[in-house]
Amino acid sequence: MRLRFLALVCVSASLAGACGLVPQGGGSERRTVTVWLMKDSASREFIDRFTEDFESAHGDLDLDIRIQEWTGIGEKVHAKLDARAGEEGANGPDVIEVGNTQVPQYVAGGGLLDLTLESMRDWGMRDWLPGLAEPGQQSSTQYGIPWYAANRVVIYRKDLFAEAGVTGVPKTQDEWLAVTEKLDGDGRQGIYLAGQDWYTLSGFIWEEGGELAEQRGGSWYGTLDTPAALRGMDFYRRLQALGDGPVDADEEHPPQAGVFADGRVAQIVAVPGLARAIVERNPDLKGKLGFFPVPGRSADKPGAVFTGGSDLVVPRNTDQREAAVAVVEALAGEKWNTELARTMNYVPNKTTLADAVAGEEGVAAMAAGAARGRATPSSPEWANVEADNPIKEYMTKVLTGADPATEARRASQRITEALTVSVS
């Protein structure tokens, strides 16, 4: 998820020798910068416009943007990062889009370029969304540059709110519970919340000041059993009970868009883009859907949410370092970042750019929540947790009556084991 070339090249001591690469009068040899972007992250029209603009501004550079599939991308990126400098030649990527929560595993391998100087001096890192910026940082060094974000909001039925006499959207968790209880009944579900929607639970835990896991003394430990994390789970339990969501499945089993479209469900927690699928399935709902940020403990700010999205990284083994930095600067800069957000209904990478999407209700609600966005723990081993997710099992057990503290300790131990790297 980033941007700016001539000033960077000529003032950075580490790049001082590259100023001679800037074309002075048309005789320079053109160079190609290879960029990997993920499928559906940007439209073809956006990519074409960006390419034309970038190549016009950088007369000696050609962009080769290659679209990648998410399936199997981890192994493919690792292979490129592990290659010796220059070994891949023009075929190796110089800039790579990666999922924000994937950055720690690539940092651990030592294959990413340090972009801290540019981030602090030129790119306004203080305004970046924390859910994108924090996973891209390791030991105060910035490797991943925020590109775009998406996070959950509450999608609601305006007609069912009116039917129940609810005239406004809730701003606090207490109001949310009260409104949802009023909506639940008379053939309506107050909310459809699957029992294993652990991304939504994560936001409730963070809102209470808890964590999924913490690093202490160089090791990672599961922390679902802390008082704050238990309060987050208790709020989830109370909210989930005000509907008929299955306690032993996540939001994709069955897909909650279908449940919402086909039934009298007043609310779901989802990314706003899901509204399109809902209306496609049930055209009668066109114009009846609204959006609001996930409420927090107090009315002055939305609740914490999980932030998904992408960062941009530069491999250390690139042989087009200065040009790659220029591409990152352009993609993540204000002009093209806001263009991407408007085109794709994303949240821009900075809190200061939220007004760029204020005209679309769902994206505006998402942008408001993104300011409180977080990502999963930045351990490179976090994928091990999600592979056999103990958080889901923990949630089901609590929702079916098991003792929360006991089950939280068991789940925390499993998280600790999954994050522990054994040395043979």
Protein traits:
single chain, 424 residues, six-stranded mixed β-sheet, 18 helices, globular, disordered N terminus
Topology (elements, then pairings):
Elements: H1 6-11, E1 31-38, H2 44-57, E2 61-68, H3 73-82, E3 95-99, H4 103-108, H5 116-121, H6 130-133, E4 137-138, E5 141-142, E6 145-151, E7 153-157, H7 158-163, H8 173-183, H9 198-207, E8 213-216, E9 219-222, H10 227-240, H11 256-262, E10 267-270, H12 274-281, E11 289-292, E12 305-313, H13 321-332, H14 334-344, H15 361-370, E13 373-374, H16 382-387, H17 390-399, H18 404-419
Parallel strand pairs: 1-2, 1-3, 12-13
Antiparallel strand pairs: 3-12, 4-5, 6-12, 7-10, 7-11, 8-9
Helix pairs in contact: 9-10, 11-12, 17-18
Walk me through what this model shows.
By secondary structure, the protein is α/β, with parallel strands linked by helices. Helices cover 39% and strands 15% of the residues. Strands 1, 2, 3, 6, 12 and 13 form a six-stranded mixed beta sheet that branches. Strands 10-7-11 form a three-stranded antiparallel beta sheet. The chain has a two-stranded antiparallel sheet with strand order 4-5. Helix 2 links the parallel strand 1 and strand 2.
